[in-house]
Write a structure and sequence with these properties.
The chain is mostly beta strands. Helix content is 9%, strand content 34%. The protein has a 9-stranded mixed β-sheet.
Amino acid sequence: MVMKNGYGFGEIFKNAISLVYTKIFYKGARLIRTPIFIRGKKLLQYGEGFTTGYSCRLEMFDTGKGGAKKLIIGKNCKIGDNVHISAGESVTIGDNCLMASKIFISDSNHGDYSGNVQHSSPDIEPDKRPLNTKSVSIGNNVWIGENVCILLGVNIGDGCIIGANSVVNKDIPSNCIAVGMPARVIKKYNCVAKQWMKI
């Protein structure tokens, strides 16, 4: 069963305005709902069919690491309301991904807390600590639930489902369901049995 949206008049009117805005400023995208907040637009690459909810925040900044594009979004990706993505090195999102609302994805952190790093001392103001970046990769056909947080250095494989309110701080293999804080794999799709199996 495929869900169909039944928009009221107000929503239809707002979508019509957003559609005109999309056609003018975001060629190839399906629908960019306004308001949207984008910093560093020249560092953004998106595929055909890209759709956003309301009040999304996409920020890309040049740290001297990574390629010419910092945020790369594949074809037919749909993100919900209030999604915040921050990319200083590289955040790559594959094709046909679906994201709920209030999701945070970042490849950067104020400071490095992996060991004995003097310039990340608690005596230093957080915004004066050197920016630490590690690329983030999200595969194709990934579904990310409400309020998920994906942290720097994480790779999520193809076909994954990340449950609502999860904090992903380590890699998730392809075709897995992961939930929790921190997120852990609870099921994996069995291609032979054609079903999700508990881990």
